[in-house]
Design goal:
This protein has helices at 38-49, 76-81, 87-98, 104-127, 163-177, 230-236, 257-264, 307-314, 330-340, 361-374, 383-390, 394-410, 488-504, 509-512; strands at residues 23-34, 54-57, 70-71, 131-134, 150-154, 181-183, 188-193, 199-206, 209-221, 245-246, 277-281, 291-294, 322-326, 377-380, 431-435, 438-443, 454-456, 462-468. The protein is of the alpha/beta class. It folds into three domains: 26-65 and 179-278 and 444-509, FAD/NAD(P)-binding domain (3-Layer(bba) Sandwich); 70-163, no CATH class; 283-436, Succinate dehydrogenase/fumarate reductase flavoprotein, catalytic domain (Flavocytochrome C3, Chain A, domain 1). The strands form four sheets. Strands 1, 2, 6, 7, 8, 9, 17 and 18 form an eight-stranded mixed β-sheet that branches. The mean pLDDT is 94. The chain binds flavin-adenine dinucleotide. Flavin-adenine dinucleotide binds next to helix 1, helix 7, strand 16 and helix 13.
Length: 518
């Protein structure tokens, strides 16, 4: 929507201060961490280990956790498994991906510190009964490169307490065992700062019954991103508003409150706009490398790209509609490409498959059966019938499939240049079509910050005693979420959560987190 030059976004005018009469309690501590997500919980344990007394305040009734993948460079697991990666190349790719619109010092900070931070977390997870492996679903084809940097935490045979939920459960338990308080049902509504002085605390709670937290050493904002705030999406990345869906868990916790309370005391957002957004394909379609067609039944791209390119690319099609189409051999074709070592990729594969595990055809078939039952995938014995179920023009669709089969037969994609080994014909019934759904996971831009997680103002000066970690922080991603580094969203929560906790506690990061030689 067009905005006049005088238009003001709702958060641009700071709200009135909260009167003392509405504050019913005052608590003194060293550090207040806002948000019990991965970044906040890592920050709390790190600050405590560094000798401070932190308190976490969390607006929900429980901690937040989701997903599987956690990126780090050169962890002890990499060393144990003999996995060698050219990490300098990863950074170069990442910078190219962003066209240098990222703060490269933050990337190098991650590159050098993430290994030791992951080692610290592995120790905690293993002591809590979890195991750790490296994800094997990363894309191994030549067109864009993903790297084996992704750690998975799991309990064998117990998916319900595996992955990042299981990990966060252990972090919460450790936090409580250390005597660190987590105050649930405590939404932070204001930061306390006198003019240009340091941030001295937080006000949290609800009207009429607020608590004032005095934080001697600082406040760490770890409130997640703002993807559930449509106004902020419109301001910082309006393209994302075209996505089909948005998911988060717990749903709608990520509404940008941390960004706002920081801006009200002088914090600046990152300089680069629009912000990047994590928009993946909803897993149901299982798009793989198969033919994609739009609502007119026409092919429109080389399908051999990452999930983010697929979800964003399909939004450009009429009505934002696209399908992935394959035949009875489809999953066998995927199996072969995995076996050849040219397949994989985020959401092209089972998200939790570990190095050393076989790609599980039966599990994929079961998943497909589920998707057919839920209506995410349609299935038919003829292409005509399939086109009707997809509601695309039958003749155009059949002509597209015929052309695609011709390209497959000649092993040369003259139309979009896809690798010939991924041109698999669509000839054997039943035929399948999965609707591609672009789903926003997180908005990955945020507050301006430096390598010590200090929040910066418009002059790039640190605001004393105010820190940020996790997806509330900015400067790390641009243009698009770099799926070349699967799990980097969680990866930065771990590394910068740890740095924020240690710095806020007044300790030297280099003394506590040794740098890796990258
Ligand atoms: C379905 C899904 C799967 C994903 N899978 C992966 C994956 O496999 N790998 C990966 O790297 N990334 C993944 N991501 C992204 C990743 O989960 C996030 O980037 C990351 O977890 C953010 O962590 P965080 O600690 O910064 O924020 P959050 O986990 O969002 O935690 C922030 C916490 O702050 C609380 N909070 C917010 N405002 C306030 C307030 N005013 N006062 C008090 N508390 C407040 C929230 O309730 C929340 O508990 C996934 C995202 C989704 C949606």
């Amino acid at each position: 929507m067009y905005k006049t030059p005088n238009y003001r976004w709702s958060w641009e005018k700071p709200p009135l201060p909260i009167p003392d009469v509405e504050i019913i309690k005052t608590i003194h501590t060293d550090i207040v961490i806002i948000g019990a997500g991965l970044a906040g919980m890592v920050a709390a344990l790190s600050a405590w280990e560094a000798g401070a007394r932190p308190i976490i305040i969390e607006k929900n009734w429980t901690f937040s956790a989701r997903g599987f993948h956690n990126a780090a460079f050169d962890s002890k697991l990499h060393r144990k498994m003999g996995i060698e990666v050219d990490y300098r190349q990863v950074i170069r790719d990442w910078v190219r991906w962003s066209q240098s619109k990222v703060d490269e010092v933050l990337l190098w900070r991650f590159a050098k510190k993430s290994g030791a931070c992951m080692d610290w977390l592995i120790d905690i997870a293993e002591a809590g009964g979890m195991q750790v492996g490296i994800w094997d679903g990363y894309y191994k084809g030549p067109d864009y490169t993903e790297y084996p940097v992704t750690h998975l935490f799991y309990v064998p045979g117990q998916p319900e307490i595996s992955w990042n939920y299981g990990l966060s459960r252990i972090l919460e338990r450790n936090i409580k065992n250390c005597g660190i308080e987590i105050h649930y049902h405590s939404p932070a509504v204001r930061l306390l700062r006198e003019k240009q002085g340091p941030v001295t605390g937080v006000i949290a709670g609800r009207p009429g019954s607020y608590t004032r937290y005095h934080a001697e050493q600082g406040v760490i904002i770890a409130t997640g991103d703002y993807a559930s705030n449509m106004e902020m999406l419109e301001r910082y990345n309006s393209f994302a508003l075209q996505a089909d869906a948005q998911v988060y868990c717990p749903q709608e916790t990520n509404v940008g409150e941390g960004h706002k309370i920081a801006m009200w005391v002088g914090a600046a957002m990152q300089k680069v706009e629009p912000h990047s957004t994590v928009i993946h394909l909803e897993a149901g379609a299982m798009s793989y490398f198969f033919l994609h067609v739009n609502a007119r039944g026409q092919r429109f791209k080389n399908e051999d790209v990452n999930t983010q390119s697929k979800s964003c690319g399909k939004l450009l099609q009429p009505g934002g509609i696209a399908w992935t189409v394959y035949d009875a051999n489809g999953l066998y074709d995927v199996q072969q490409s995995i076996a050849r070592g040219t397949g994989g990729g985020l959401f092209w594969d089972q998200t939790e498959r570990l190095m050393g595990q076989e790609w599980d055809l039966e599990a994929e078939q079961a998943l497909l059966a589920n998707h057919i039952q839920s209506g995410k995938v349609v299935c038919a014995d003829t292409l005509e019938e399939l086109a009707k179920k997809m509601k695309v023009p039958v003749e155009d669709f059949i002509a597209t499939v015929k052309r695609y089969n011709q390209l497959a037969a000649q092993k040369d994609d003259e139309d979009f240049g896809k690798r010939s080994e991924l041109l698999t014909p669509i000839v054997k019934p039943p035929f399948y079509a999965g609707r591609l759904l672009a789903t926003i996971l997180t908005a990955s831009g945020g507050l301006r910050t430096n390598i010590n997680c200090q929040v910066l103002d418009e002059d790039d000066e640190p605001i004393p005693n105010l820190y940020v970690a996790g997806s509330t922080a900015g400067g790390f991603f641009a243009n698009d979420y770099p799926t070349i580094c699967p799990g980097i969203g969680h990866g930065r929560c771990i590394t910068f959560g740890r740095i924020a906790g240690i710095v806020a506690a007044g300790k030297d990061v280099d003394q506590v987190i040794p740098s890796r030689k990258i």
